[in-house]
Amino acid sequence: MSHTEAEIASQPDCWRRAIALARDPEGPVRAALPRAGERVAVVGCGTSWFIAQSYAALREAAGQGETDAFAASEMPLGRAYDRVVALSRSGTTTEVLELLGAVRGRVPTTVVTAVPDSPVVGAADAAVVLDFADERSVVQTRWATTELALLRAHLGAPLEHLEADGEAALAEPLPGPLVDAGQFTFLGRGWTYGVAQEAALKMREAAGAWTEAYPAKEYRHGPISVTGPRSVVWWLGEGASDVADEEITRTGGRVAGFGRDPLAELVVVQRLAVAIAAARGLDPDEPRHLTRSVILG
User: Fold this and answer.
1) Could you tell me the Gene Ontology terms of the biological process aspect for this record (predicted)?
2) Which residues share a beta bridge with 235?
3) Which domains does the chain have, with CATH numbers?
4) Which of 66, 171, 194, 205 has the fewest CB atoms within 10 Å of its CB?
5) Are 214 and 166 in contact (CB under 8 A)?
6) End-to-end CA distance of the chain, in Å?
7) Global confidence as pTM
8) Diameter over CA atoms, the chain
9) What is the SS3 string spanning 49-99?
10) CB 33: neighbour CB atoms within 10 A?
């Protein structure tokens, strides 16, 4: 079993631990994460940027306050925020460290990281450390879903179903037609658009697959033109998609989506990415041209 496969399999346990941390009234998470009413910017790079998008949408939908998500390199420094939350697995990403340095002393900052002695911990005013979700693999799997489970729990989301959904997503065989597909389009709505973006990234990173991601209603505005007989269109949202199955099947494409919590759906995508990588002779633990952290000279 590769490191990636082992880390994928550990996710339900990681989620349970993260949810317990978020719900502990005396724990460090409550004090470190944004309070209701704060105007917040959430930043990250790569996977963490997509998780930031999901958290921002969730926080606003919960009535907790205006929340914007940015790639760390693109946050506008002239805007007024009550707090900046930075997401960084390694805690060494150059763009995140530069941003924390730029706002230090002007805006309170919180970092969510997997490494307790990483540079971002010293650069931020407060830290949430999920060291049990750290990974050896370059491609992020359990870290991404665990930090989002923590953030969802902090916002009060009912997550009693999540662990069971994750176990089911790990146990069921992957449908053969998914492994043989040549193109994937992932769709989300609201907070799950960030999850769809992350699903597409996982398939690109681990398997070099042709993947795209869009808000569901945007699918008709051009993206539908790439769907064909070897395509999969995958709904990663709650409830029914805004795109009718018949619209996809008329193109010759296949509809995917298992009706579980979007984090559990992401587990299936992660497993599929590993299976496609193996079929193509690729190593999901060491994807081409990527490193665990981007540190610029």
Assistant:
1) carbohydrate derivative metabolic process
2) 187
3) 3-154 (3.40.50.10490), 162-279 (3.40.50.10490)
4) 171
5) no
6) 35
7) 0.93
8) 57
9) HHHHHHHHHHHHHCCCCCEEEEEHHHCCCCCCCCEEEEEECCCCCHHHHHH
10) 22
To the nearest whole number, what is the mean pLDDT of the chain?
91
Residue matched to tokens 């926080």: 59
Token pair recorded at residue 290: 């990527």
Cβ burial of 96 (10 Å; 0-12, 13-18, 19+) is buried
Query: Would you say 150 and 128 are in contact if contact means Cβ atoms under 8 Å apart?
Result: yes
Q: Specify the residue for token string 């540190």.
A: 295
For residue 239, give both structure tokens: 């409830």
For 138, the token pair is: 């370059």
Give the three-class secondary structure for 109. Answer: strand
Return d(Cα 203, Cα 284) in angstroms, integer.
10
The segments of the chain whose pLDDT lies below 50 read 289-290, 292, 294, 296
DSSP state of 287: -
Please report the sign of the dihedral spanned by the C-alpha atoms of residue 187, residue 192, residue 193, residue 196. Answer: negative
Looking at residue 171, its amino acid is A
Query: What is the rounded CA–CA span in Å between residue 21 and residue 264?
Result: 20
> CA-to-CA distance for 286 and 137, rounded, in angstroms?
7
Confidence at residue 220, expressed as pLDDT on a 0 to 100 scale: 86
* Contact predicate 256/232, CB 8 Å: yes
135: amino acid identity, one letter: E
What pLDDT does 73 receive? 95
